[in-house]
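User: Please predict the structure of the protein below. I'd like the answer in structure-token form so I can feed it into my own downstream comparison script.

Assistant: Understood. Taking the following sequence of 185 residues as input:
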Amino acid sequence: MAVVVLTLRIALAVIFGVAALAKIASFRRTWARVRLFGVPEPVSRPVALVIPAVELGAVALLIPDVTARVGGVVGALALGAFSIAVARLLVRGDAPECNCFGVLHTTRVGPGMLARNIALTALALVVAVAGPGARAGIAFWPWAIAVAAAAAATVVAARLRDRRERLRRIRPAERSTGDPPTASA
């Protein structure tokens, strides 16, 4: 069981890290989605900043053995709050696009999203109750760097994929109009 809990910690840390970095990488989209979720305009920007900060906090707490339980609690609370927001939207019949994974993946709010978040909440609660599980066996910084590198690489790959797709859409349009290609940022 100890190895299972350690695996859950690592998986949750990577999931939260990827989600946070992807939201930060597409902050305008994150901010817009927060408003679509019904957050009032005056507080939507701070909420859009707090969400990835809480996710990064969960990562930082899940990594060390001594704070793994607290990381599980923070993760479960964040996922639980999001599950409540999704359930509220479903009851109202709204299905805005979510920015759960920023540039990596956008999907509409639906029952599947609610089920996924409830399952992740349960996994975070396992860590909160069971504790750190097997010891990671490595110091905090190598562990943190590995999680951050995995999350950052995923976000960078998604940004590169998005750029390639935009260029593919632009090039056929250039051929049809005869306009010279333009440099893109």
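That's the full token string. The chain has a mean pLDDT of 83.
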